[in-house]
Design a protein that fits this description.
Layout (H helix, E strand, L loop, with lengths): L5 H13 L6 E3 L5 E3 L4 H13 L4 H8 L3 E6 L2 E6 L2 H10 L1 H12 L4 E6 L1 H7 L36 H12 L8 E4 L6 H14 L4 E5 H14 L2 H9 L3 E5 L8 H16 L3 E6 L11 H7 L3 E4 L5 H14 L6 H10 L4 H18 L5 H15 L3 H12 L3 H5 L5 H16 L4 H6 L6 H17 L1 H12 L3
Parallel strand pairs: 4-5, 6-9, 6-10, 7-8, 8-9
Antiparallel strand pairs: 1-2, 3-4
Helix pairs in contact: 1-2, 2-5, 7-8, 13-14, 13-15, 14-16, 15-16, 17-19, 19-21, 21-22
């Protein structure tokens, strides 16, 4: 059952029923008749009564409950809010609703001005933290960097050398070399490895560092809202010197979380603190995503990691075998490097499968053993949604980032619709398909599938393309 503050609503209803246009008086939350000129508090309490029944309870509790009316001057009500973040959130999302509520209470067209409480203004004007942070800084969960993910263990090749040297540069000159550094590329190519390498080296040199995935950031933000500690949440991040955020594409569609990250980004960047962001696509292909946040990602340097070439794949396998002290014949390494072409994780996972089977079965590590194991593994994978998307992208001659991203030119849109239709025919629901295309919502995917299906009935060339794709082996 939803609970509302009855006295607030009583005041609001009495004002609507009794007071006329231009009245200089108001009923307060208890129903008493009060002078409007001396009761900004009463005006705001009555407006809150209206807002409380118009917005979801969590919204009211988070953004409106800790506000208060301070001054009513002419037709302008000044409302104090607990923080700059709250003020900006209300200004961008609720100011029209707030203004309407106040106007209804006063019986005249009114303006609302949001001001941050004086104690918070003073707090916001404190000098940025010094280079050596003290233990008085708000605590963040300590990042445990993966000891395997260092610069020394990273295998450099043509597909990733620019990203590697850029990552080294930001540790050598944090906040000044490339800020932000935006690293993008498909899954399993080494983005997380570089973030951990940056973080562990920066932490070793005394910097205050935090690595976090976008999902963890969202969880922390949601918990801060629930526990009403948004100021503490922001101050924790603003005290950092190096912030590393992984898989930022998963912030898509989360407007509140994006807004919180936007303000943290601005504060850190202004104070020359290093920001490194990783994603599976270029910043311009993040959808749906706040344009002002995407533009921030373009301030520094954007680097791409692509699929490793054959020589790099061999080097990755040899380094992995050396790390786990496994003796692997060169022809087996060559076979795996040829069969597994989709990144570091697939390469290492394929080698692990072969080694495990050899250990369990007692068979020697041979090319025949590798062939039998990997053919079985890849046969199951060949019909996966990711494999279908790769097949369609290859067929149309476009990149994986383009087919999954937000580009809308005719060729890319047609390829994307074809892939969605094939996945729907394979039994996936629209909401499941959307996950593979930048977290698109179910309605958008369903519309694309409908368009592709209609086109297949009227466009013989498109229909033949679909038939060809269905006959192509992944």
């Amino acid at each position: 059952m939803r609970h509302v503050n009855v006295p607030f609503i009583v005041g609001a209803l009495l004002n609507e029923l009794v007071l006329g246009e231009g009245s200089d008086h108001i009923f307060n939350q208890g129903g008493s008749y009060m002078s409007l000129s001396t009761s900004a508090h009463a005006v705001w309490e009555a407006a809150l009564g209206r807002l409380q029944v118009q917005v979801p309870r969590p919204t009211y509790e988070t953004w409106l409950k800790d506000t208060h009316g301070e001054l009513m001057a002419s037709n302008r009500l000044i409302v104090r809010v607990p923080s700059t973040f709250v003020a900006e959130w209300l200004e961008t999302r609720m100011i029209a609703l707030i203004t309407d509520a106040v106007s209804a209470v006063t019986g005249r067209t009114s303006e609302v001005e949001l001001r941050v409480r004086e104690d918070q203004v003073v707090l916001n004007q404190v000098e940025p933290p010094p280079a050596n942070f003290s233990n008085t800084n708000p605590p963040l969960p300590k990042t445990a960097f993966n000891s395997r993910y260092t610069f020394e263990s990273f295998v450099i090749g043509p597909s990733n050398h620019f990203a590697f040297y850029s990552a080294q540069a930001v540790v050598d000159q944090p906040g000044t070399a490339y800020n932000p550094l935006y690293i993008h590329g498909s899954v399993g190519l080494g983005k997380t490895h570089l973030l951990h390498a940056i973080g562990s080296k920066a932490a070793a040199e005394g910097y205050r560092v935090q690595y976090i995935s976008s999902e963890q950031f969202t969880t922390e933000f949601t918990r801060a809202i629930r526990d009403r500690r948004m100021d503490e949440f922001q101050q924790q991040y603003k005290a950092l010197q190096v912030l590393l955020i992984d898989d930022v594409q998963f912030l898509a569609g989360k407007d509140g979380t994006q807004s919180a990250f936007f303000h943290i980004f601005n504060e850190l960047h202004t104070n020359d603190c290093q920001i490194v962001v990783a994603a599976d696509r270029p910043s311009g292909s993040l959808v749906p995503f706040n344009d002002r946040l995407k533009s921030r990602f373009e301030w520094g340097l954007s680097v791409e990691i692509t699929e490793p070439d054959y020589e790099t794949r061999v080097a990755i396998l040899e380094k992995h075998a050396g790390r786990i002290a496994a003796s692997v014949p060169s022809d087996v390494v060559a076979y795996i490097a040829t069969a597994a072409t989709h990144g570091v994780r697939q390469l290492e996972g394929s080698l692990n499968k072969v080694l495990a089977m050899s250990q369990f079965s007692g068979e020697p590590i041979t090319k025949d053993l590798a062939s039998r194991i990997l053919k079985t593994a890849y046969a199951a994978r060949s019909n996966s949604p990711e494999a279908v998307i790769i097949k369609v992208a290859t067929f149309y001659g476009i990149s994986l980032q383009d087919i999954k991203g937000g580009a809308r030119n005719k060729a890319i849109s047609q390829a994307r619709q074809a892939a969605m239709l094939l996945l729907r025919q394979a039994g996936l629901r629209p909401d499941e398909i959307g996950v593979y295309f930048g977290q698109r919502d179910r309605t958008t995917v369903a519309y694309a599938i409908q368009k592709a299906s209609a086109r297949a009935n009227t466009d013989s060339t498109f229909q033949k393309s679909l038939e060809a794709l269905q006959n192509v082996e992944n």
